Amino acid sequence: MGETVRWLTPEEQHAWRSFVRLHEKLWGRLSRLIQAESKLSAADFAVLVNLTDVPEGRQRYQDLARALEWEKSRMSHHIARMAGRGLVVREECPDDGRGAFVVITEAGRAAIEAAAPLHVEAVRELFLDHVTPAELRVLADISERVVRKLDESVS
């Protein structure tokens, strides 16, 4: 109970708030652009990207939820909405009666293929065009190190 709070120094607070502001602005702008041009929400896009990154475009619900850092209920509701639009289907797991897979459909593949060039161009315009290759390498190193640490602490 008597632990001392390790308050942020002014430099740490500035760096943290700048990072959070960057993330919020980039995510918001990318989300609006993708939605306006492709009719996919940022969450739809994230699900479809994850599914196209795995063999056969299928992933267990729990693994997809973990990759996206989503709660079980959010995952279930969002996948149901995407399935209703024909972007994904839910398949029961034959090895585990309680488990299920999320599988990308042809319509889902077509949607992500149409949205991906828009996304890439927006990422370049909003972010990559404003950093140097050296800064990009440093950012990648920092991001990978922090993500590794976060992954270690997952219970």
UniProtKB/TrEMBL annotation:
Look up the domain of life of the source: Bacteria
Report the residue ranges that make up the HTH marR-type domain in this protein. Answer: 12-148
Provide a Gene Ontology MF annotation, just one.
DNA-binding transcription factor activity
User: What Gene Ontology terms for biological process does this UniProt record contain?
Assistant: response to stress
Q: What is this protein called?
A: MarR family transcriptional regulator
